[in-house]
Amino acid sequence: MKGLEFVFLAVGSVLGAFLRYKITESPLLFNTLPLNVLIVNVLGAFILGIFIVFSQQWNLDGRYSLFAAVGFCGSLTTMSSFALDSTNLLENNHYGTLAINIVANIGLSFAALIGGKSLMSAIINN
Prior knowledge:
Strand content: under 5%
Oligomer: single chain
């Protein structure tokens, strides 16, 4: 990795991590469902969907992928916190909430990525 590529990755990572910290610093629960991690995962997937189309349309240099996809979205989203929240729900016998957490994080993130791609495609094609 060259110096400039590292800078793109580092700046994207710091910005993504900072936004994740700000969103998750105060626990937000719906009953026992942790919403903070769900929010960052869905938001990150949506932003990634937008970036993918934007990057393909304008044939962006790979450094921008390091910044946006790997750095920013990679630091914004959090599989480890999702796994921890899910494990805590399992250990506390909140099986229904655990199922909702898993389906919501995976399903809504998947839908958000498709939504971001669709939105950006619609904007570009108009």
